[in-house]
Structures are given as C-alpha cells and as structure tokens.
Amino acid sequence: MSSSINKKELKNESRNFRTIANRVLTSEYDTFDNNLKRLVYHIDNNYIVKMFIDSCSNEEYNFEIASDVKQVSEGYGQYVFDSFIEEDKEVLYTYQILKYITDNNISFRSYTYPYSSSNKYNDKIKGFNDKFILPFINEIDGNFERIGVEMGLDEDTKYYINNMSGGQVNISADNSILNAVQNNYDNVDKLVNNIKSKIDSIKDNDIKNEIIDNAEGIQEEIKKENIKKGRIKSFINTLQSLLPKIATTIEVSAAITELITFAQNVIK
User: Fold this and answer.
1) Which of 85, 208, 246, 259 has a Cα-to-Cα distance from 57 of 20 to 30 A?
2) Which helix (H) or strand (E) holds 159?
3) pLDDT in tens, 129-165
4) What are the phi and psi torsion angles at 210 (to 5°)?
C-alpha cells in the first residue's frame, strides 16, 4: 500500500494523532475507556499510523494476546504486560493489546490494577499510561518525525509513503517508489518465465512441478502489498534444496539461481 502526502498534510496528521493521544494520557477513570477506544479507532483509520504498525508485523511474532490480557486482568497485581527491546515488536504487541481490550470492552479496572500500588483508579490509569501506552505513542510520534525529516522543507511536493517491514515505511518524492515496485513486478515475471521456458529439460515431473510451484509462490508474494518475508524465504529454501537434484540441467539451475538471488535482495 502506498499513499501520497505533502509536508503540510503530514503535520496535520501528526497533530491530530497527538491530540487523540493526549486525551488518553490525561484521562481520568470516567473517560479513560472511551478515550482509549478513540485512540484505537484513530489508528485504524489513519493510513500513516496504521501503515507504520503494519510494517512492524513479522510472522515470527506469535503473541498470546487474549491469554496475556486475561493473566494481567486476573493476576491480582502479579503480572504486567510484556515489554520488548525491539521497537517493532513493542509497537505491534502494544497495538494488539489495546485493540483486543477495546474490541472486547474490557474495563480499565482490571488490567491497570498492577501498574500502581495506589488504591486510586486515576493513579492506576496514570501508571498504565506512563509505562505501557506512552512508549507506544512516542514511537508513533518518532515515525511522523522521521518521515518529516526525509521529506525536507518543501511543503508542496507530494511524497509517496510505502509499506515496508521491520518497523519502517519508505518515503520517496515523485514516482520513484511506484517505479521501483513496478520494476520488481517486471523482473520477477521475467525470471519465472525464464524458468518455465527451460523446465521441460527436467524429466522428473514431481521435481518439475515443485520448482514451478515455488517459483510462482515467490512471484505471487512479491506482488502483494504487504510482502511476507517468511513465505519467500520458505520458497527460496525449497528451490535451493532442489538444485542438487537437477545439477545436470545447467540452464534451469542457472535460471532458478537468478530468481533466488533476486528474491533474497527484495527481502533484505
């Protein structure tokens, strides 16, 4: 997914996010639940923030969100939500916790309990905000700032913001991102077609079909808006395991190796 925006529009988006975030951070017990819902709703409907969170996704992250909320809510102060060193992991986990809480209408009275030794609800909310939500908000703010820095000083030029991974989004003026994406599409099509044009030199139909399936798997994944690196790595590994079995078919082996090298560069 990519969207165009100029620096003035970016400032407005950043200001709107901070306004909603500040309502949560300054909430008291009678407004917190609704203000948290406003924050999550705003995130889900703000393409810059949502794109940043989506870019943090990694299929290796297997969070037990429902279990964690239940444990913290029913743990009588023994447990707090997990804390992660990696920014992308922390961002994704925090968002998923807040999303689960608001989607399931879970009251702050349960999950904020361990965040303050005070028996006052407002103190518990403040502790939860300071320790859990504020770092999340600061990381989103930091992403707005990073985009602004990369845009430079020109408020009129449109910039393309493109989804990537590992807690990053890509920013580029004019059509360079769109051209790069199109180049990926064209290149992967040529490489896969090259394999198909030579595949008949392999006599084993099972191996032949497995090569085509995995080559087309790479082709399909690279053309998606949100590329899953793990899937591409799996296709690459399978193709690499097949190379020794077709060592005598030099042209096919060379074509497969070209595709593998290209795919590895795409997911760096």
Assistant:
1) 259
2) strand 159-163
3) 999 999 999 999 998 888 887 766 455 555 555 555 5
4) -70, -40
Per-residue pLDDT reduced to its tens digit, 8-60:
888 889 999 999 999 999 999 999 999 999 999 999 998 889 988 988 888 78
Strand order in the sheet with 169-173: 2-5, 159-163, 169-173
Helix (H, G, I), strand (E, B) or coil at 175: coil
Cβ neighbourhood burial of 25 (10 Å; 0-12, 13-18, 19+): middle
- Same domain? For 125 and 42 the reply is yes
Please say whether the beta carbons of 115 and 80 come within 8 A. Answer: yes
Domain co-membership, 165 together with 187: no
Where a domain ends, among 110, 135, 170? Answer: 170
Rounded to two decimals, the pTM is 0.60
Structural domain of residue 131, as residue ranges?
2-170
- Structure-derived torsion over alpha carbons of residues 191, 194, 196, 197, reported in degrees to the nearest 10: 170
